[in-house]
User: Fold this.
Amino acid sequence: HLKGIGSLGPIEWFFMTPKHHRVHHDRRVHKNYAGMFIIWDRLFGTFADEGPSLALAGTENVIYGITAPVNSYNPYTIQMQVWNQLFSRISRTSGIFSKISAWMRGPG
Assistant:
């Protein structure tokens, strides 16, 4: 989450950079999910650039956070939390369309 690293030029079209990762961890934005290859976010419409995204959120500063608190120090539990939330949401929804669309919506 380095604030000192700005734009990395053409690399940013394909790879997740610190600039993209800051947007990913902003509690208000919910974008840039792809991990290593930001190209997937660009292809599927979940990409957000740091400047415009934060301007829409009403600030120039990132408010770091996650969608739900983690109550563990176990790395496996921390990594699996998002998958557990997803499958829990799918099990609570009714109808095949709602279950399929749960895969496409953001967290929360």
